[in-house]
Specification:
The chain is α+β, with helices and mostly antiparallel strands. The protein has five helices and nine strands. Keywords: Signal.
């Protein structure tokens, strides 16, 4: 079975960054549909729509597409993903960064990040490595996003799979700012609805690795 994998890296240049890595595993599943979003304009629209649907439900302003972030995401993918292999690693750059691997539909990776909200403790106002993708997605001060995706090989079944990278500016997940920057869901929001943004391949939670929490 091909696991879906998630990775979060939120990196900054002016704050101390402890190089801690935490791993949380959950039951993975294997995608069954062919990958989608082969057109760049469709991909960009899907990324913005899915991100902003979650953000609106948590009182955060819409993100705008940033070509510099998209180019940075694509450049990182070019360095780690080829038709024969997928090297699952973060870029270590100056932006907030979410990664996902193994989804038949690239937008389903974004939905999986957002669905982490069901496990986030809005009352604590603290970072949780199980929900770090979600908190970066809805971080109120983040204004720009740019994403890249690439089909790469090396899966257990020998087939190609989507490797998705989204980078954010300004970066989120800054310790001491969670209460202000990560808002509770608006009244009437169904936390189990996954924002109504699940793609044709569905979505699956696999492995989450967090590196580079900002202090």
């Amino acid at each position: 079975m091909l696991p879906a994998i998630l990775l979060l890296a939120s990196i900054g240049t002016t704050s101390a960054i402890p190089q801690e890595t935490r791993t949380v595993t959950a039951n993975p599943a294997s995608p069954t549909d062919e990958p989608s979003y082969t057109r760049s304009d469709d991909f960009q629209a899907a990324m913005l729509t899915t991100h902003n649907r979650f953000r609106s439900q948590h009182s955060a302003p819409d993100l705008e597409w940033n070509d510099t972030l998209a180019d940075s995401s694509a450049s990182h993918l070019d360095s780690v993903a080829t038709p024969s292999r997928c090297e699952f690693a973060h870029s270590g750059g100056p932006y907030g960064e979410n990664l996902a691997l193994g989804y038949a539909d690239a937008a389903a990776g974004v939905v999986a990040w957002g669905d982490e909200r069901r496990g986030y403790d809005f009352g604590s106002g603290e970072f949780d490595d199980r929900t770090g993708h979600f908190t970066q997605m809805v971080w109120r001060d983040t204004s720009d996003v740019g994403c890249g995706r690439k089909l790469c090989g090396g899966g257990d079944d020998g087939g190609a799979r989507w490797f998705l990278v989204c980078q954010y500016w300004p970066r989120g997940n800054i310790v001491g700012s969670f209460t202000e920057m990560v808002q509770r869901p608006r009244e009437g929001v169904d936390m189990g609805n996954a924002a109504g943004a699940v793609g044709p391949g569905g979505w699956w939670v696999g492995l989450l690795v967090v590196a580079g929490l900002l202090l």
